[in-house]
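Page 42, continued from yesterday. The earlier attempt failed because a stray header line got pasted into the input along with the sequence. Redoing it now with the clean sequence only.
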Amino acid sequence: MQQLQMFIDGRWRDGTGGGEEVINPATEQPIAALTHASPADLDEAIASARQGFEVWRRTSAYDRSAILRKAAQSLRARADELARVMTREQGKVLAESKVEVLTSADIMDWYAEEGRRAYGRIIPGRVAGSRQMVLKEPVGVGAAFTPWNFPALTPMRKIAGALAAGCALIIKPSEETPASAIAIARALEEAGLPKGVLNLVFGVPARVSEHVIASPAVRKISFTGSTAVGKLLMGLAAKGAKRSTMELGGHSPVIVFDDVDAAKVAAVAAGGKYRNAGQVCISPTRFFVHESSYKKFVDAFAEVANGLKLGDGLAADTRMGPLANARRVDAIEGFVRDAVDKGARLRAGGERQGNNGYFFAPTVLSDVPDDARIMREEPFGPVAPIVPFKTFDEVIARANSLEYGLAAYAFTSSEKTAAAVADALESGMVGVNSLAVSTPETPFGGVKDSGHGSEGGIEGLDAYLNTKFVAQYQPA
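This time it went through. Structure tokens are written below.
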């Protein structure tokens, strides 16, 4: 098996804290051995990041941009190879993996350019000869923690934003999908990134986060993952008054009004639902369909689900790959069983598939009662609960009833309804007549228990910048 190493102080090296195997979710077979960091290794990474920051903050935005752009081009040149690596470790179909690699390169390119525009401003003074200046300066050393569902894109948002702002970063990607983040670090190393600016570590998540966040050298935290873990990390960050960006859980409502073609919308929505086997933080997860279109929508959605080819993501005819790990299979099985026990109708799927790999059939549930767990808890898998609604006020109340607020969607042909629903939904991102709410140049983040702060867009750069005000007067 391939031995996967950490990147500390500009060197690829094994850790001294043990390790684990990386498993292919389509076969349940080990494909790599991953090293873990000990506390001493983490201390070395922190010290390296502190020194790297002093070099990087003095590197011009122009020169930082050139390094990031060179690394992005390297990733594009290796997109086919890296897509296969991603599919083997995460499970998603090959086409989705390649899009993720290319989008990650786009994110790095965008930040490479935006980092050259971290503008301050001049404020007219009240006294003749005075200058009032607002400057933007890098926060310092950041610490980032990312999950397994988008093993290139999610680390890239944090790496590119931090480095473009002039910060150094210690990042701990998921141990279940480490190779994609390793490829990003290699591309930056080959592009000439000074040592210490990026340190890549692995280990037991709680031990790593507690140790790194406690360091006085770390001034910024960025986390993508569950709400429960995010709240724990926010508490750790608060002890040191450290800034944080938190992209946490979601449970995205989709409202389908009676003035659209229900079958066409169902086809679009199903495509979004089963992308990455539903393991997407902004995946559509609660479908509210006007009662007049309800049957047509459910039938069309179930037809798409029943027609999807399930299999190894590397196979050319596969349309949905396995879940990423055994935990997700058990969780989805529990959601389906609970909903059916409470009266939901199973319209497609509902079962594990095959004897090898973490496969679960694309699933559709209709007439799901509000007290079913899947209507209250994020499923994070290939199951779609669909329920009818009657009025605008009713469906908005139901869509906003949870403490999640990451993404929400609506489909309507009325401009008046589109504006009203966009205003009414309590969500950090709203897609109207589209599920596309994530691009490199737009902010990505949630409200309520879905977190705070944004990645992407100018907001993602500002997250790594301090504001300094300088008042300059003529000598007395």
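Notes: The chain has 14 helices and 23 strands.
Reminder to self: strip header lines before submitting.
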